[in-house]
Specification:
InterPro entries: HAD-like_sf (IPR036412), HAD-SF_hydro_IA (IPR006439), HAD_sf (IPR023214), S-2-haloacid_dehalogenase (IPR051540). By secondary structure, the chain is an alpha/beta fold. It has eleven helices and six strands. Helix content is about 45%, strand content about 10%. α10 (about 180-185) links the parallel β4 (about 170-175) and β5.
Amino acid sequence: MTRAILFDLFGTLVPGDTTVQRDEVSRRISAVLGVDPERFAAEVRASRKDRFTGHLGDLAETMRTLAERVGGRPTAAAVDSAVRQRLALARRQLHPAPGVLDALDALRAKGWRLALVTNCSAEVPLLWRETEFVDRFELAVFSSTLGHAKPDPRAYLAAVVALNLPPTSCAFVGDGASGELPGATALGLPTVLADTAIADPWADTAGWTGPRVESLAELPTLLDHLVPDEDR
């Protein structure tokens, strides 16, 4: 098959937690790390870019570094407990939204190759093989492993090169967070806004004038028009 779809993860395939929910987990983790809960929650938020590009190391190193940034000196046992709580949060997040698996299966049945290109911290690649997605995707590009996060062109190109296809044969589908839609468009990827019920409400998509869907079930028909099939 000469066509592929690069999917965003959070807000597109799985719901993302709200800032309030993420902060509550950070506060619980702060208790085992022995640091101030509000300062730690703020530091977790502020470290998003560093975590998404893997600059803080693996998950244990990340938890230790964040605690030290707010004055903590956690023990190995405390760091291990913090790691378990972060993994529990990610494991809860990585469940497909209703209808997502059916939509992915329908696309695969039509011959589409599927790839993931996601901005994420170290938890997601650790848990990916546990998810219901793993057998449906040919490959997954995790920003924390790659070292580059969308909209950096290297994030998309890692998937395009691995698929051995031209950008024009690789559609990108996402909810528009982190400027990912213009980033994909700039590389020549046919790009679709997933304006679904689980899309990040803070994603800046007001200026998006390209194709959009309100359900991933709409993708097969739309993408048939957007991405030529060289096998036909």
